[in-house]
């Protein structure tokens, strides 16, 4: 009888070493870009940091590209000498080991990194922009080139042209008509020859509406709507806006 009891006790030991439960902590991690940009050339790098809004605990981290978990567990994830196939949506999750099992946070909103293998990139900020505000478009060229001319296109039609080494364009007092697919062409002269490169098209989004505080003061925020005639469905707050303010959406008359 004693032998049987001893055998049963040993058989339960592996089970006791397994996590008892998997708990989900109500934290939303945030992925931010420390260096680099959302859109980079192949061979360049970008640093991403995962932050869990809990300063009382020590967290480990899980990183994902799409639905695939990456074999990296640090807080800062680095794409070093990125390749075109590194393009994807990156997200993270916090994990903490406790006596009752692993505690996991929610998975963060993904950040899309696009690695371009071409010679020119069009960079548009902010996204989306609001009607009446400004939009900055930059034409980046791989390497250091003494640019002689840069042309900005929207939907294949020339919008602006800069002479000399000036790759930046500022579109002010935006209207809905400024929304479209943007690209750029950059040219430079070398050894009495003119070289030109053109970027792929990227979307430049312009939305109606603005956000105001309860006092009526304008607050620099981005408003996204699924349809121009509907109320905005999501508001992204910038750092310059008071987080505790009551926000109202201002739309044009006739919106349903």
Compose a concise summary of this entry:
By secondary structure, the chain is mostly beta strands.
CATH class of the largest domain: Mainly Beta
What oligomerization state is this entry in? single chain
So how many helices? Answer: 2
Average the pLDDT over all residues and give the rounded result.
Answer: 79
Contiguous uncertain segments of 5+ residues: 1-17, 211-256
Which structural class should the secondary elements be placed in?
mainly beta
CATH superfamily label of the largest domain: Immunoglobulins
CATH topology type of the largest domain: Immunoglobulin-like
Based on the structure given, which CATH architecture of the largest domain is correct?
Sandwich
Q: How many individual β-strands?
A: 24
